[in-house]
Amino acid sequence: MPCDRIPVQSQIKVSRGFTLIELLVAITILAIVAVLGWRGLDSIVRARIALNASMEQTRGIQLAFAQIENDGAHLIDAGLMPGRSVLNTAGNKLMLIRSVSEENQPTRYQIVVYSVNDSQLARRESLPTRELAVLKQDWQSAADDSDSWGRILLQKDVAQIAMRTWKLGETGWRVGGSDVQNMTDENKIKNGIAADSLNKTAKLTGLEVSLLVQGQSAPMIKVFLLGAG
User: Fold this and answer.
1) Where is it located (predicted)?
2) Domain total for the chain?
């Protein structure tokens, strides 16, 4: 009895793969997705780096301001150095004389200098002393930048620093220069200061510091009380 046979052609399953065009389209889509993903990741990494740098700059400025605030709070009484300045804000340099109090030690005094050189804000200080002659000599050395005191870096990439001072009894900020806080009345009159304004130039009470760091659109400004400590 003859048996029916299925044609050989019908027994073979035809397996159809991707064409070359389909593969090229798929590869192109994957490449586009990869590029978009890489750009997104790159922008996130760049933003994180910029944010970390900005936070580091802000932290450095805050630490510098905290140190200036501490030094300014211990600014000595101008009466200890008649006819001489105890604070100078000329140019890119801040100089002041502060008191140093340590346990079981008499109060001593030292010169503190903040200066910006090569876009770096640094602080240096003299050894504490009770000798007025030594203090005057240290002040002159600091003014001439001929001292050999250790230098501590506070902030890098400083584009500009500006300072102003405020005197008791006056109504405006003084820009830069050296303010002799306690000239005698005779010297004041010789310097062209009217007798009725003698009491208006007696004491520095405020210091404003403006610090602009490279990459920042605006400076950070802070006002400090002087001699409050």
Assistant:
1) Cell inner membrane
2) 1
Residue 216 tokens read as 């920042």
- The beta strands (E) that lie in 92-149 are given as 93-100, 108-117, 120-125
Q: What pTM, to 2 d.p., does this model score?
A: 0.70
Residue 111, burial from CB neighbour count under 10 angstroms (0-12, 13-18, 19+): buried
Q: Nearest 5°: CA angle at 22, between 19 and 28? A: 140
94 and 116 in contact (C-beta within 8 Å)? no
- Domain range spanning residue 189? 53-225
The more confidently predicted of residues 156 and 45 is 156
pLDDT in tens, 193-211: 444 444 444 588 899 999 9
Sheet with 108-117, edge to edge strand ranges: 87-88, 93-100, 108-117, 120-125, 151-155
